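Weekly structure sync, notes
Attendees: PL (lead), two postdocs, one rotation student
Agenda item 3: pending single-chain targets
PL asked that the sequence for the first pending target be pasted directly into the notes so everyone works from the same version. It is reproduced below exactly as submitted, 511 residues in total.
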Amino acid sequence: MIKRIVVLTGLLLLALVLPMSLYGQETAVSRTTEDTTVSQGLPTDQIIIKFVDASQTGRALSVEDDSFMTDLSETAGVALTYERAMALDAYVLKLPERMALDEVTAVASALSQRADVVYAEPDRIMQHFDAPNSPAPESIEVESFIYLPIIMAPNPIDPLRSQQWHYDYVPGSSEGINLYNAWGITTGSANVVVAVVDTGILNHEDLAGRTVPGYDFIHDSLVANDGDGRDANPIDPGDWITSAESSSGYFDGCPVSDSSWHGTHVAGTIGAATNNGIGVSGIDQNAKILPVRVLGKCGGYTSDIIDGVLWAAGFHIDGVANNVTPAKVVNLSLGGYGACSSTEQAAFTQLWNAGVLPVIAAGNDGAYAGNYSPGNCNNVITVAANDRTGDLAYYSNYGVGIIEVSAPGGAQIYANDPNGILSTLNAGTTTPGADNYEFYQGTSMATPHVAGVAALIYSVHPGYTTTQVRNLLQSTARPFAVGTTCYDYGDCGSGIVDAYQALNATLLSDD
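Predicted structure, written out during the meeting:
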């Protein structure tokens, strides 16, 4: 087993160091939207399909009805078996084995030509978006902002809070979310629930009392790594991949790594217990965290993710008891290369219209975010990562019209570099060990900052629509400083999310 460095690398998570011209002081007006240097998706063995008459076809799609599956297989040119029904009146079909994504796309395209099919598409494998350590490009000197709010000293009752620079705001040196002033307005509400759709969660002492009952939506027992499929236990058993697993067998080609405990880290940023005398602080001191497990060994299927997202928001999923504590905010620090699929877009539109805010990581390939889903879907908040000095983090994806806002994701050179984001974690390299805290970096780490601020907004204005919250986050985001990469290119969203300015604006709107 390799020594676990701060983050896991994956086929979709290569941290590409951007050319120095992107960080320099040349007059550049745009970055490329082409993306030919990164992996275009992991192999998959599943297809999502939706039929013209879902209810009628649903009766036909049964394990007893071989004739219909034979007919579909003849169209596809490969043997298909029925796997299960999923959300949005869609179904999951199984291929004989994992195949390259372009091959699965061809199979889905053939099925899409049928008159009784609305769409068919690969059930893509998604992965969490934290970035491997890598030397960052040289920093440029950052001018002081004109924007200078009063800075309150952090309360030392949480001993590691002083290392959470990402909550502070010191121009040019700690370009965080200006949280301490925001806590003077609100520390959140227990009536707000934030779903962490991720690898699950651990019983970390700094998350005690902060969660509501969640669910494990991973249907594949090998991916789940907990001995079974879906169940009501969202505890993270670990997602490690050994060299032997990576070289052959079910997880052939998956990146070798120790367990990430990714969902636990994300959850800590949103809502670690605050002022309890241990560890770190969370952004929202009162909101509840809803753990939804969708990522296991080597990632997770889109079909499981979509079911998990909709369940978290309060929608019914066949075979699963309804969620009695629906989320107002859904955090997805995950994704993969590819266009926003029909299934993804339908789900996020449903959430948005229901008043549930999806907050999604932009991705960590230092590339155009429009090539990565689900952050490239409509009706979502897509988050890029900034480093401590206010630049776009060297790994972060970017894109005009794709990124809504940026938030602290850190930029590390070595394992546990304090220029990353400090949160709750676990010392186990495979199965869970002792509670600990570590610095991670990635758009995965930026995203929960925005989700946490959104939760604070909802605690003050629970009736705000998703559009109102998005507009508020963007209109109150701190402008990028002159000379920073985001200022030069204008492709990192409206600015760095600012909790104090957002909440202050809600007070002003009440006057």
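Discussion points:
- DSSP finds 13 helices and 19 strands in the chain.
- The longest strand covers residues 90-99.
Action: rotation student to compare against the earlier draft before next sync.
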